[in-house]
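quick one before i forget lol
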Amino acid sequence: MTVLFEFKVVELTDTGSALQQIKDKGYAEKYRAVQQPIHRIGVAFSCDKRAVVGFEFEST
C-alpha cells in the first residue's frame, strides 16, 4: 500500500487544490509498478481560521 499526502495552506484558492496537485504532478506514477493500492490524500489548511478547511481522498 502506498499513501501520498499533499498539504496546502489556502487563503483565496480552491480548497480542492491539494488533491489536484498530486494528480497534476504525477506523484503516484512511480508507484504504479508495485501493483498495490495507491491512496492520495489532500488536506487544506486556512491561515485565517488556523484549521483544516478541506480534506479529500482518492484510492486506486
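fyi Residues 17-25 form the longest helix (9 residues).
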